[in-house]
Specification:
By secondary structure, this protein is an alpha/beta fold. It folds into two domains: about 190 residues, Rossmann fold (3-Layer(aba) Sandwich), CATH 3.40.50; about 160 residues, Rossmann fold (3-Layer(aba) Sandwich), CATH 3.40.50.2000. The strands form two sheets. It has a seven-stranded parallel beta sheet, with helices on both faces. It has a six-stranded parallel beta sheet with strand order 10-9-8-11-12-13, sandwiched between helices. Strand 1, helix 1 and strand 2 form a beta-alpha-beta unit. The radius of gyration is 21 Å and the shape is globular.
């Protein structure tokens, strides 16, 4: 059976979206009857956590995924050496990067190319050029690239010059597709925004939109996801919004699920991304969504969301005001959201990822 060596050096249990991708992907691959075997090469942090979701043994690399220098060195040099030692037939990098050189075929999942397309929105600008170099080098040695949207595929063609016939577009799925929440559980005046405070998330637009709503029409807004001192605190204070804008840190999954089940709508003001997992997760439980009007959000949300001009607080205030005053539209978005989210599944992600592996190992599998 072909052995797939899965590079999980970046996963530490604290990094959000890309970790969710790796975990859900391999959890669902483990539920399939497949010709592949798998071994995970994990960071020292992940080795201390529950890895029962992975469909095979894991190797503790001894490399910290939180230390950028040791992690980068591991990505470039240790992965290929360890894969060869394990007798692997294929290396999968689910988190953007691949080894500097490898005699073993490599498949990399590239979620976005924000350091290329929107460097001005990156929080750690010092790492812009090193990250771009690592992404270029990884792609140059890859047999195939997996990406999560047609938008990201267009960025790969533009910035990495990677052949289109070796790009597999495999959209993601939400994690809560089996849940249905009664509309009666929703509060009529609670809006939600989530995510870490990187500039590309553009939470400033959300806060400023609230200042443009008349106090009598202003619903309660909860923004979760900060780590440490929240950079939005001064803005909320300066605009006099302490009574209507609640800033929370990174909340436990149970608390976030409660917010999803009781909010009026989820707002995503992100200016640049490769997909939107929160959109599908909200839709899957009937939570209406208001999205910045970007190409990738239109690709994910289609006609099942309301949109506002990206980066425009006035237009977001309009969208919030209109949705708050229109229960019929809220119900319509709930119905459309259920239908839209049902078109995505992790089973499909897993099956199409295995197909990408098969394409990369065509000659070997034919033997």
């Amino acid at each position: 059976m072909p052995l797939v060596f899965v590079n999980l050096l970046q996963s530490t249990g604290t990094k959000g979206g890309i970790e969710i991708y790796a975990r859900e992907l391999y959890r669902h691959i483990g539920e399939l009857d497949t010709e592949f075997e798998f071994v995970g090469y994990v960071s020292s942090e992940l080795a201390k956590k529950d890895t029962s979701w992975f469909p095979g043994p894991v190797i503790n690399s001894g490399i910290s995924g939180e230390n950028r220098l040791s992690w980068a060195r591991g990505e470039l040099f240790s992965v290929s050496t360890a894969a060869k030692k394990a007798g692997a037939d294929l290396i999968h990098g689910p988190a953007m990067f691949g080894p500097l050189r490898s005699n073993i075929p490599v498949v990399i999942s590239i979620h976005d190319l924000l350091y290329f397309s929107h460097p001005e929105l990156m929080q750690t600008k010092l790492f812009t050029e090193p990250v771009k170099w690592m992404e270029k080098r990884g792609a140059a040695g890859a047999a195939r690239l997996i990406t999560i949207s047609e938008y990201s595929a267009s960025m790969i063609r533009k910035y990495l010059k990677f052949p289109n016939d070796r790009i597999d577009v495999i959209p993601l799925a939400g994690r809560t597709g089996d849940s249905v929440v009664s509309e009666n559980a929703r509060q009529p005046d609670l809006f939600l925004a989530i995510g870490q405070r990187s500039p590309y998330k553009n939470f400033e637009t959300v806060v400023r939109a609230w200042s443009e709503l008349a106090p009598r029409d202003r619903p309660h807004l909860v923004i979760t996801g900060s780590h440490g001192d929240d950079p939005l605190i001064p803005l909320v204070r300066d605009l006099g919004l302490e009574g209507s804008v609640e800033l929370r840190s990174w909340v436990p999954s149970e608390e976030l699920a409660h917010l999803f089940s009781t909010a009026t709508a989820l707002i995503d003001s992100t200016l640049a991304t490769g997909f939107s997992l929160p959109t599908l997760e909200a839709m899957a439980i009937g939570l209406p969504v208001i999205l910045a009007d970007t190409e990738v959000f239109r690709e994910v949300g289609a006609n099942a969301a309301d949109y506002f001009i990206a980066g425009d607080p006035t237009d977001l205030a309009r969208a919030v005001r209109e949705l708050s005053a229109n229960p019929a539209r809220q119900s319509e978005l709930t119905t459309l959201g259920y239908e839209r989210s049902a078109q995505f599944s992790w089973e499909k992600v897993a099956e199409e990822t295995l197909d990408s592996f098969r394409k990369s190992l065509g000659s070997l599998l034919a033997q």
